[in-house]
UniProtKB/TrEMBL annotation:
Biased composition (Basic and acidic residues): 9-19
Protein name per Swiss-Prot or TrEMBL: Uncharacterized protein
Region (Disordered), start-end ranges: 1-30, 823-848
Listed Polar residues bias regions: 824-836
Length: 1435
């Protein structure tokens, strides 16, 4: 079935808007479509039908003249015969057959009327029917389905049998009349009658509404075969004929098992709708193969119409063109056999009629019988084929482990490819739309046939361009968008492109694949619908606010009316009343937007007094929801009106208990961060004004935050279980204390409990077994998922606020330092002596005030940190009872555990942010004072004090002091622990907190030190981090942070080297500023470099980077050797792998089948411990494991319980770590039906693991390239890529060769694994280059540039990648995922909506000379003691 957009259709295929050309009945066809447009095979069509064809035309004319009911089989055959001749063998070559048929009918009418035949004396009725059918009905039908059938060529849709059904409908409505009074009304009724198919479509049952699918969801399926008539002309004719023959001849017992009676297929039809892989219905087993039409039931209560899907037919026929090693006729036989098998499988899901299955039948219970009769049918087919072809198929079945393996695997692979193509183009369309390139987005969407993709893209593009118009001041253009978007949303809903909103209330946002709650899945379209509705509301609110701020009365009223209309429409569906759906009340949203618009109009009419905080006081009560606050604060921030925005933020905080801190994207913490970042950027050159405003902001926050200012308490479970004596923290953490302030004064009451709960703590895991605690609590009394879920939501907003507060304190400390440095700069000192004294006095007062504020923040941070650790302990004490071994029990257990562990993760993250803020504030204090106050020294642990002093030196720009302080700091941390056991393995949350906080300290240093020119020290600190992990192992399952630390440090080193090279190039050109500057960014913008500059920098920089890589790669490789990148690395040798394979072959079924290997099941089993799970199954029994060979073997002593547990753990962990690949295995192979064959999948994973080991070792090379492309050093990046490609090409080829061997051995392609290996290690560099192009491309779009070279280059690279789709369409390809992340990142950066860790403290670059770089590199390379891997090169 063609899926070309209109611009890509064959030239001689009429566009829909041209279909009225059929009205030219008097014109000869060869005048409408000139003779030279046709191939030779079409000249016969121009010359007229054959003798048999003319007889058929006369029969049709008689039918149209005299009949008023259904057509007899003879008439249907006549329609089919005429269409066959008009098609000439190919419906898509030459003029459309349905137009030829009209011409022939009109020609025959004229001839018969002029003949002596009295029977055809009056042909008025026939002419009327012909005209209505071709000139009215067919164009109207295409227009009615302009969204749903946009992709479809009319030649495919309007075949002979389809036209026959249309004629039947027309005649039924015309009756005996020769004329029609209202043809338009008649056509509407006929279309309604024709559209009788919707497929599997669950309908909500509501108390006060009778729900049905929308009229535009129904279509008339394309008849491919009618019983007693024959098969229509077209590309599928022979395939269908052979498939039906195979079904008809199949053994009775197979047909009975499949609920298939060939004689019951009264009509075999093709679903004309585009196959949408994102639709949840396609997760219904075998749905893509077709099935019985459950709305077409005969008088005996049996289904009588069978549906096929073009996606399956096209995939089967595709193999005929792609395979050259077998005769085409044999390949067609195989395709027909597989088509027949898929039809039997599809039939088995629904049964022969509504009464086929009882209520206790489930999808799971159907799958095994379906697989059995499918395989039996295929074996029977091979026996029937016989001969050399049969012998070849038997050999193929032996090789591929399944009958018809080649055809079936090709079918699965083709379907996966189609799914991947749709996913790629849909996502790329959305990315282009968000970037602001509507035309390119539309091109990508039009590649996809599905209506949902095309309509969603148009909506995205409309709002993106509308917002750009709004930012550029074009309010009239922005006003046009809401109405157009609302129309598209309704059209998408009504044609099935978007979820039916009634299903939210009726099914709570789920989709039922089959009767029974166990067959219900989340409807992913719900998230899409909610997002697009909220986006539209947000868009209207912004335009409305802009109209109010301009006091544009007409625009204001228009937006008011549109918002009210859409809100009333959306509220009808009551999505906001469904507890499990996160949807706001649209009327409340409207009211909020209205109040905001009123407030902004008042603001405008009040003179738009910039910075007038008092103006808002009388109107503050108008803001009654987070959304209302967000809208007006956003509008004010866009106008740089910071004081009223601050006032509303503070008022919002004071009303938090009433309105909440967050609803959807409306978040006070995020807006507060945005306010502070934008204020800092806006007043960066006016630090004297900036600090007082920032300080006052924090005063307001503290005065209004009330309980949000402190750590919250856990209000679920027995809090007594969380006391610290039970956890014995003091015994484990005796050395821990690092408070900034005197604990006697502020924390006296808490000293006994919390003495150990500080950052400078060291841990000793006494068991060293990699398991820090009970990972499966057997005590406690918690049974409710709801109670923990409710508590997680309550605590979430409080933790968000504290996390944002901590980051904002750090930014505030940075502002204080900037303020201090500005006042101490020589150029700012007054000249007069009296002025000097007064200035000095004011400076001292300001510094004292800054110190007082910073100390107050630090005191609060200490208390909050302690409260958060108490909260962490209480949550840890919340026990989860053990679940049973059945599927539902494990799912419930997993859900509750994930909620609890997720909450602990958030608390840990917040505690780390709070402690980090305390340390940064202390460092700022140290920088202000010049040293760490002697009366506080005793209250800091050794490594903490050293970190603060080092931070302070870097903040102050004193590189020499930092260099002097560095050795002592290294000695204080070298014995500290950097590893931790994750929560999923029973890790201690407090130990996780300590390790992550220590990692944060190192990350700051690794980011800052290269910027201050401390190259040697950075190299040494990276190696120190590795040694910290090496010297302090904690057992199996530990999580390492070294890779993240190495990446941060190494990228910062490369960036500093590149900055220095740019600075050197600027100096070479005689830039005096560049020569004299010692702490500034390069004076030459890398985007303005000439080709000569690029070449000179590349020649200088590449040798330096190669030397840096040589120095640093040893640490990375030494670390790599300690990592287990995949569980399968433990079975890399032959004997271990052989034992695992033997275990799987012996015991894999049913343990490793798809039914059990669901993610929640695997997680629950692994968390409980496989051995414990097996033991309980042996003791208590288990539905899955009872009576299995594994249980018998354990009971009989043929295998030890521990050995079985180890093998199962290895398989489960492998599937957990490679879940995307496992989905590929399930969707593209038939081996996945059999648990004992899972080793074939694991063998592919073993190869993937070896590839990933090499890719991991190459990461520093990749990071270097990332930095180069980000800095637009194109020639240097190209040289770096080419160098890697030369060195790694041969190794990459070996992996591809091994892949081919596995594919041949197991007859599996495994696209996700194959695509990864086909990257040959270098494709990530292409992705890096594409990511670097996004920011300039988005900037060009925002500036309304007519052409963007950055986007053109990006689009070219994307087109290259889309030519070879990767994956199976279940997950985004890596390159698209990276582009999506980059677009989101740039969007957030442009809005300054979140605080990045690297932006907390401002550390300018101090460029080094090239000689200084070389000198420091030589020192780093010679430090054999510090870098053991370099000892051989120390001289």
């Amino acid at each position: 079935m063609s899926s070309n957009p209109p611009s890509e259709r064959p030239q001689d295929s009429p566009r829909r808007e041209d279909s009225e050309a059929g009205d030219q009945a008097a014109s000869p066809l060869n005048l409408i479509l000139p003779d030279n447009d046709f191939e030779a095979t079409w000249r016969a069509a121009l010359e007229g039908p054959s003798e048999a064809g003319r007889d058929a035309l006369q029969s049709l004319l008689g039918y149209l003249t005299f009949s008023s009911g259904p057509a007899a089989p003879a008439i249907l055959k006549a329609w089919n015969r005429v269409h066959d001749e008009a098609a000439g063998g190919d419906v898509l070559s030459g003029p459309p057959p349905f137009l030829i048929m009209r011409h022939w009918l009109e020609e025959t009418t004229e001839k018969l009327q002029s003949s002596e035949s009295s029977a055809f004396g009056d042909v008025t009725r026939a002419r009327t029917v012909i005209r209505v059918l071709w000139s009215k009905l067919l164009p109207a039908y295409l227009d009615f389905h302009r969204d749903l059938l946009f992709h479809l060529e009319p030649e495919i849709l309007f075949n002979g049998l389809f036209l026959a059904r249309c004629a039947e409908a027309v005649l039924a409505h015309v009756g005996d009349a020769a004329t029609i009074a209202d043809e338009n009304e008649l056509v509407e009724r006929i279309i309604s009658q024709l559209n009788d198919y919707v497929g599997y479509r669950p309908v909500a049952v509501l108390e006060n509404r009778a729900c049905q699918p929308y009229s535009h969801e129904f279509v008339r399926p394309i008849p491919m075969m009618i019983h007693g008539v024959g098969i229509t002309a077209g590309p599928y004719r022979e395939l269908i004929r052979r498939a039906l023959k195979a079904i008809t001849e199949a053994p009775e017992e197979i047909l009975r098992a499949a609920a298939m009676d060939p004689d019951q297929i009264r009509e075999l039809c093709l679903d004309p709708r585009a196959y949408d892989f994102d639709h949840p219905v396609n997760r219904r087993p075998n749905y893509h193969f077709g099935g019985w039409d459950e709305r077409s039931i005969d008088s005996d209560g049996r289904y009588d119409r069978f549906m096929l899907r073009s996606v399956t037919l096209d995939a089967l026929l595709c193999r005929l063109n792609e395979t050259t090693d077998a005769p085409a006729d044999e390949l067609l036989d195989e395709a027909a056999s597989v088509l027949a098998g898929t039809m039997l499988m599809a039939s088995g899901v629904s049964g022969w009629g509504p009464g086929a299955y009882s209520s206790d039948v489930t999808l799971r219970s159907l799958m095994v019988p379906i697989a059995n009769y499918r395989d039996e049918f295929y074996r029977w087919r091979i026996s029937q084929i016989g001969g050399q072809h049969g012998e070849r198929l038997l050999a193929e079945a032996e090789t591929r482990h399944q009958p018809f393996g080649a055809a079936r695997q090709h079918l699965n692979a083709s379907l996966a490819r189609s799914r991947a193509v749709q996913l790629q183009h849909v996502q790329l369309a959305r990315i282009y739309a968000r970037m602001g390139y509507a035309d390119s987005a539309a091109k990508q969407a039009d590649v996809v046939s599905a209506a949902s993709a095309r309509l969603m893209c148009r909506i995205d593009c409309g709002m993106t361009l509308g917002l750009r118009s709004l930012r550029s001041g074009d309010l009239p253009a922005a006003i046009q968008v809401p109405a157009a978007s609302f129309d598209l949303i309704r059209r998408a809903i009504e044609c099935g492109g978007l979820m039916d909103p009634w299903d939210i209330l009726g099914f709570t946002g789920n989709f039922s694949l089959y009767p029974g709650i166990e067959n219900t899945i989340h409807d992913s379209r719900l998230d899409e619908l909610l997002f697009i509705i909220e986006s539209l509301f947000g868009y209207i609110a912004r335009v409305w606010s802009e109209a109010a701020a301009r006091d544009d009365e007409a625009a204001y009223d228009q937006m008011d009316a549109q918002y009210r209309e859409i809100a009333q429409w959306w509220r009808t569906f009551a999505a906001h009343t469904v507890e499990s759906v996160d949807a706001a009340d649209p009327w409340e949203s409207y009211e909020s937007a209205r109040l905001v618009a009123q407030a902004l109009r008042l603001w405008h009419r009040g003179g738009a007094r910039h910075g007038d905080i008092a103006f808002w006081a009388p109107h503050a009560e108008m803001f009654d929801s987070p959304r209302a606050y967000m809208l007006v604060i956003t509008a004010l921030l866009e106008r740089k009106d910071f004081i009223p925005a601050q006032a509303l933020l503070i008022h919002w905080l004071g009303q938090a208990d009433r309105v909440g801190l967050r609803t959807g994207a409306s978040s006070l913490p995020r807006l507060a961060e945005r306010w502070l970042l934008q204020l800092r950027d806006h007043l960066r050159d006016e630090p004297t004004e900036l600090w007082p405003r920032v300080n006052k902001f924090f005063d307001y926050l503290e005065a209004n935050a009330e309980s949000y200012w402190s750590a919250p308490h856990f209000e679920v479970g027995d809090s007594a279980l969380g006391n610290h004596s039970a956890d014995d923290w003091e015994r484990e953490l005796a050395s821990a204390t690092d408070d900034l302030l005197d604990p006697e004064a502020d924390l006296e009451d808490d000293e006994d409990i919390f003495a150990a709960a500080y950052e400078g703590m060291s841990y000793q895991d006494t068991t060293d077994d990699g398991n820090e605690g009970s990972i499966f609590d057997t005590g406690g009394d918690s049974d409710s998922v709801d109670e923990i879920e409710t508590e997680v939501k309550r605590l979430g907003s409080r933790l968000d606020f504290l996390q944002a507060l901590a980051r904002m304190w750090a930014v505030g400390a940075d502002v204080a330092i900037t303020h201090h440095q500005f006042h101490n700069a020589p150029s700012t000192s007054p000249k007069s002596s009296s002025g000097d004294a007064e200035s000095a006095r004011q400076a001292r007062q300001q510094q004292e005030q800054q110190i007082e504020s910073l100390q107050a923040w630090a005191r609060r941070a200490v208390k909050n940190r302690i409260g958060l650790l108490q909260l962490l302990s209480d949550v840890r004490a919340y026990k989860i009872k053990p679940a049973g071994t059945d599927k539902e029990s494990m799912r419930t257990y997993d859900r509750r555990r994930v909620l609890r562990d997720g909450l602990m993760e958030r608390i840990i993250e917040t505690a780390v942010e709070m402690s980090d803020a305390r340390r940064l504030i202390s460092s700022a204090l140290c920088a202000l004072n010049g040293n760490l106050s002697s009366d506080l020294n005793e209250e800091f642990a050794e490594d903490d004090a050293g970190a603060i002093e080092l931070f302070a030196a870097l903040i102050a720009g004193d590189s020499e002091l930092a260099r002097t302080s560095f050795p002592a700091f290294v000695e204080s941390i070298i014995q500290r622990n950097l590893l931790y056991i994750p929560l999923s393995r029973g890790g201690d949350p407090v130990k996780i907190y300590v390790a992550r906080l220590r990692e944060r300290v190192l990350r700051h240093l690794l980011h800052w030190m290269p910027r201050r020119g401390l190259i040697v020290e950075t190299c040494r600190l990276i190696e120190t981090a590795r040694q910290m992990e090496q010297r302090n192992p904690i057992g199996a399952g530990a999580v390492t942070e070294f890779d993240g630390l190495y990446r941060a440090g190494y990228r910062s080193l490369v960036g500093s080297f590149s900055d220095s090279a740019l600075h050197s190039e600027a100096a070479r050109h005689g830039d005096a500023h560049a020569k004299s500057s010692d702490a500034c960014e390069p004076s030459v913008d890398s985007r303005e470099l000439t080709a000569t500059d690029q070449h000179a920098i590349s020649q200088t920089l590449i040798p330096l980077l190669e030397k840096l890589t040589e120095v640093m790669l040893g640490s990375w490789l030494a670390h790599s050797q300690t990592l287990r990148l995949s569980p399968l690395e433990s079975v890399s040798d032959g004997p271990k792998w052989k034992r695992l394979v033997e275990f799987i072959q012996a015991f894999g079924d049913p343990l490793f089948t798809q039914g059990f290997l669901q993610l929640s099941n695997i997680r629950a089993v692994l968390h409980q411990g496989v051995e414990s799970w097996l033991g309980r199954a042996l003791e208590d029994g288990d539905d899955l494991l009872d009576e299995t060979e594994l249980m018998r073997a354990i009971e009989e002593g043929r295998i030890e319980l521990g050995e079985a547990a180890r093998c199962i753990t290895l398989v489960f962990e492998s599937l957990m770590d490679h879940h995307a690949e496992y989905q590929d295995y399930n969707s593209t192979t038939t081996q996945s039906d059999r648990g004992e064959m899972v080793y074939t999948f694991l063998d592919f994973l073993r190869l993937r693991a070896r590839y990933e080991r090499v890719a991991w070792n190459l990461k520093p090379i990749m990071w270097t390239h990332q930095v180069l492309v980000r800095m637009n050093l194109g020639e240097a990046a190209l040289a770096w890529r080419e160098s890697l490609n030369e060195r790694i090409a041969a190794e990459a080829e070996l992996y591809v060769k091994r892949l081919r061997e596995l594919q041949k051995r197991y007859s599996m392609r495994m696209p996700t694994i194959a695509d990864r290996l086909e990257e040959r290690f270098v494709q990530p560099m292409t992705i890096d280059r594409m990511r670097a192009l996004i920011a300039p491309a988005m900037a060009d779009a925002e500036a309304n540039q007519e052409h963007s070279s950055a986007f053109e280059e990006l689009e070219f690279e994307a087109n290259q990648l889309t030519r070879t789709p990767v994956g199976v369409g279940l997950d985004l390809p890596p390159w698209l995922s990276e582009l999506d992340k980059e677009v989101e990142k740039i969007g957030k950066r442009n809005l300054a909506s979140e605080i990045d860790l690297q932006d907390l403290i401002t550390i300018p670059v101090s460029p080094l000379t090239l000689d200084e770089l070389r000198s420091q590199l030589a020192i780093a390379a010679s430090q054999g003691r510090r870098l053991p891997h370099m000892r051989g090169k120390s001289k």
